[in-house]
């Protein structure tokens, strides 16, 4: 189990949580975080196979837990979800999806033709 260093900074907004890592940034929508809530009742619901709906939940507070996690409070009363840095990083990766490269290799740009010496 690898140790994930805490983010350099945490920016909390009602609709999202932005984490600045040493090697990048994760922007996590509140609904995604809520759907991934790790509190006891949500864990139980998942074990029963019930879907946990992120819905329109918004973030109220984010409290560091030791050096390994963040406790998130939502406006719908869920406030016991502990999100280890590792889980937050993985959420960020899945939220952004696979990195898309610019498909077209713009090696050839048609601009000015090389000026050739004018023939007489
Ligand atoms: Zn919950």
What would your notes on this structure say?
With 120 residues, the chain is of the alpha+beta class. It has a single domain, classed as NE0471 N-terminal domain-like, CATH 3.30.2020.30. Helix content is 22%, strand content 28%. It has 3 helices and 6 strands. The strands form 2 sheets. Strands 1-2-3 form a 3-stranded antiparallel beta sheet. The longest helix has 12 residues, at 85-96. 18% of the residues are buried. The site of zinc ion has 6 residues, from helix 2.
Summarize the structure.
By secondary structure, the chain is an alpha+beta fold.
Helix-strand blueprint:
Layout: E1 9-13, E2 16-21, E3 24-29, H1 30-35, H2 40-47, E4 59-65, E5 69-74, E6 81-84, H3 85-96
Antiparallel strand pairs: 1-2, 2-3, 4-5, 5-6
The structure holds zinc ion (ZN).
Zinc ion is lined by residues 37, 39, 41-42, 78, 81.
What class, by secondary structure content?
alpha+beta
Order of helices and strands: EEEHHEEEH
End-to-end Cα distance, whole Å, is 75 Å
CA gyration radius, whole angstroms = 22 Å
Which CATH C-level class is it?
Alpha Beta
Bound compounds, each kind once, are: zinc ion
Low-confidence stretches: 98-109
The share of residues in extended strands comes to 25-35%
Helix percent reads: 10-25%
Number of strands: 6
Form type: elongated
Q: Tell me the CATH topology.
A: NE0471 N-terminal domain-like
CATH architecture annotation = 2-Layer Sandwich
What's the rounded overall pLDDT mean? 83
What summary fits the major beta sheet? 3 strands, antiparallel
